[in-house]
Amino acid sequence: MSDYPASLRRAHAVTWAALLVTIGLTIGIGGTITSTEVGMAYPTWPDINGGSLFSFLYGQLAAEYGLGSVVEHTHRQAGALTGLLVLSAALLCWCGRGVPKPARWLAAAALLGTIAQGLLGAGRVLANSYGGAVLHGIGAQATVVLIVALLMRTAPAWTGAPAALEAQEAARLRAWSGAGFALLFVNLFAAASLRQKQGAFPGHLVLALVASAALVVAAALAKRAGGGVPRLRRLARRLHIALGAQILLGIAAWLWLLGPFAAGPADDRGHFLAQAVIATAHLLNGVLVMAAAAALWIEARWRTRAERPVA
Amino acid sequence: MSLRPGDKVGLAAVVLGAAAGLVLLLRCQPGEDVRWNRAPTFASPAEAELHDLLVAAFGSVEAPRAPAGFGAAGLPAPGDEGDARLRLGRGTWSTQCMHCHGSEGGAETSTAALLHPRPRDFGLGILKFTSTVAGAPPARADIERTVREGLPYTAMSAFAKLPGPALPCVVDYTLWMLLRGAVWRDARERLGAGAAPAAAFTAAVAAVAHAWDPEQARVLAVPAAPPDTPAARARGAALFDGAAGCAACHGADGGGRGPSTWDAGAQHWLLADAWGLPAQPRDLRAGQYHGGNRAEDLYRRIHAGVKGTPMPAHGERLTPEQIWDLVAHLRALAGQ
Q1: How much is the average pLDDT of A174-202?
Q2: CA–CA distance, A187 with B75 (Å, rounded to integer)
């Protein structure tokens, strides 16, 4: 594939690694921090009370500052790994030959976003700010969106021709996928506010329903309009699956965190663990919904073209 | 490229729905975290009766009431205004404090189990680090300072940025928790000694109100620090190893594992604090003191001890000059 430079291929591979580390480790552990509420296990940054960020003596750490500090510490280490991977992708984009300018600028934006997200985390801890924690939660989603965009822009598929769609179908797909993506982002603000006890549950519920409705329409349009475009059909299917799982996890989260099963037996670690797992799974799947929604919107906005006007 | 009318209506509907969601999110009060709410259990009907008396005087944790008799200790006066302050404090408590200190202030949450040192259980009415003399309960100012500045090197963060009246009200509520815990403990002890519930409760309220009166719980005066000289450090080192007996618990090297507190063979701590948790003397070489790193903080710890722990008060055994010599030695140990 001569029009797909090797440097772009390498950047694409590194961006995949960055996405997996970001969702699987950094956000996974970060979500666990909020679920177990140990975000202030130690109120210094980036070190633990004078120790090193790159200390791997987890047993010693747990003995000195408690298991919560290990969760917080590994989140920061995972964040540093995300930063290194995004930095590597950016260097490959900027130093490699034949990388298109948009990919370079997207890589720069992803790097800046990752750095800003790290600083938001620092600010949240140093200021002991729940508002800062909400911003840090939203920043994580924005970082994922930037990495997803870079992943798509560096993918081999991007070098092919955009898919041709009937003009009105293309317009409808763009409008609904854009609205769904934007509403999902607003709902993530609501979810972060709820988790940090800065917002009320009814707001999150209404926003979740509204965003889900918009995304269901967008996915249905993508399936129909993309009848001959496998990429669109795949994205629509993934979005439907992630959204269905998210609704089920949302119901479980309400039952176990706010509803009838919220108050478990005293000192029941299993109950607490179940609550933490459900809350973290709901958050992580929310990131997947966001990634799928962002990918669908990017695909609809930049990878489709209107073939003929409406009759 | 134009949208269908149905799309326009649909998109307008979801935008309106989102606006309604945002209003609900930000205008409605976040609900109380019910995860840590537990129905109280009692060892006997008499204890349940005692608890009813406690609730009648103090209200419940969710609907606190300013009790009579504790104005001198710093609680708001009984009445609607005092109750409103405590309820506001409970609101802040439920979002900022509860996940560590628990709904009832007993630090019984699973988050607390993940932290070291474990967050304070207010059920005993004891704070470790106070400005008051040995054996005396904390002053209201101690609670306010802890909330405002936090406890260094622990998960207890500084809450100086709490908006408006939130900080003084959560201090009121914390004081209320401590007093309620002290009364409950005292009354249960009296009940165990054979007193009737009503008599036990009345006597406990009087005893706690007396003990927490600032006239009784007097603040420890810290004399001006002398110059930190090599001679002072040498005298402090001699005291550390000898008359003051610090090495027995903190170890000869100050590492926190002395023969009285650490079983090197079995690798476990030998002493417990008032909350039943292992008492771990500070590693003095690290210079990380939970009660504060300032010289006057160290002076107070040596003079009045660390309350609720095996760290004893030395104010009766050592002169102020000797305590300052020890402070000089501690600072030298930590390379300060």
Answers
A1: 95
A2: 41
Residue B218 distance to chain A (closest CA, Å): 32
With a CB-CB cutoff of 8 Å, which residues 1-20 of chain B face chain A? 1-4, 7, 10-11, 14-15, 17-18, 20
ipTM for the whole complex? 0.85
Residue scoring higher pLDDT (A229 or B173): B173
Is the pLDDT at B1 greater than 60? The verdict is no
Tell me if residue B69 falls in helix, strand or coil: coil
Count CA atoms closer than 13 A to A269's CA, side-chain side. 3
Among candidate residues A110, A156, A164, the one with its CA nearest the CA of residue A4: A156
Residue entry with tokens 């009364």: B183
Residues contacting residue B313 through CB under 8 Å, at least 6 positions apart: B134, B135, B303, B304, B305
B100 close to B112: Cβ distance less than 8 angstroms? yes
Cα A138 to chain centroid, rounded: 9
Sequence-ordered list of residues with C-beta below 8 angstroms from that of B239, at least 6 positions apart, any chain:
B246, B318, B322, B325, B326, B329
Contact A203 B24 (CB under 8 A): yes
H/E segment holding residue B172: helix B166-192
Residue with tokens 């990017």: A298
B268 at interface of A, judged by CB pairs closer than 8 A: no
Write out residues 21-50 of B within 8 Å (CB-CB) of A: 21-31, 33-38
Name the strand (E) or helix (H) holding B268: strand B268-269
> Which tokens go with A29?
């552990």
Q: Any idea of the CA torsion for A86, A87, A91, A94, to the nearest 10 degrees? A: 70
Contacts of residue B265, defined as CB under 8 A and 6 or more positions apart, other chains included, come to: none
Measured in whole angstroms, the distance separating CA A175 from the mean position of its chain's CA atoms is 22
- Please name the residues in contact with B301: beta carbons below 8 A apart, sequence gap of 6 or more: B129, B289, B291, B311
First CA to last CA distance, chain A: 39
* Interface membership of A41 toward B (CB under 8 Å): yes
Please give, rounded to a whole number of angstroms, the shortest distance from the CA of B216 to a CA of chain A.
35
Alpha helices in chain A (DSSP H): 6-21, 28-36, 58-65, 67-95, 101-126, 130-153, 167-195, 201-225, 230-253, 269-302
Instruction: Quickly list DSSP for A126-180.
Output: HTT-HHHHHHHHHHHHHHHHHHHHHHHHTSGGGGSPPEEE-HHHHHHHHHHHHHH
Q: What radius of gyration, in Å, describes the C-alpha atoms of chain A? A: 21
**Best CA proximity match to B278, nearest among A63, A207, A38, A159:** A63
The closest of B34, B61, B109 to A261, measured between CA atoms, is B34
Residue A93 to residue A106: CA distance in whole angstroms = 9
Interatomic CA distance for residues A71 and A75, integer angstroms? 6
- Per-residue pLDDT tens digits for B160-210: 999 889 999 999 999 999 999 999 999 999 999 999 999 999 999 999 999
Question: What value does the mean pLDDT take over residues B237-247?
Answer: 94
Q: Are strands A163-165 and B262-263 parallel, antiparallel or unpaired?
A: unpaired
- Chain A positions in Cβ-Cβ contact with residue B108 (cut-off 8 Å): 266-267
* Gyration radius (Cα) of chain B, Å: 25
At A84, list the tokens: 């290194």
